[in-house]
Automatic annotation (TrEMBL):
Gene3D superfamilies: Dihydrodipicolinate Reductase, domain 2. InterPro entries: Gfo/Idh/MocA_domain. This is Gfo/Idh/MocA-like oxidoreductase C-terminal domain-containing protein. Keywords: Oxidoreductase. It comes from Mesorhizobium tamadayense. One of its GO terms (molecular function) is oxidoreductase activity. Signal peptide: none annotated.
Amino acid sequence: MDAEVATIFRHAGGAMSTTISSLDNTGPNVASILGTEGRVEIASTWYSPTSFRHIDKNDRVIEEYSSSVAGRGMQYEAAEMERLVTAGKLSGEIMPANETVSIMQSLDTIRAQIGLRYPNE
């Protein structure tokens, strides 16, 4: 049931965002952030980005950034967790716990709207 999902979010100030995900089809696996003055295109794989392009509203590339990341890029999350545990903190400044909870609530709302229930629920 959740093999393909499309979402539309409304944010403060009237901003909107959309997502499309599919387990059954292969797509470009990129992300784009669109604004009134242009866009930012984040290259594949968007959740472990190594490059992005800033493109103006006339389709000109303003800036291009590229780097390499060893592994899958998750070492940064592990290093942040180590820092928090060592400091005796329960939540970080970069990704506070309330932001994680908010994301999980959004995912729960999506699951409810598409009728997805896991076996243990």
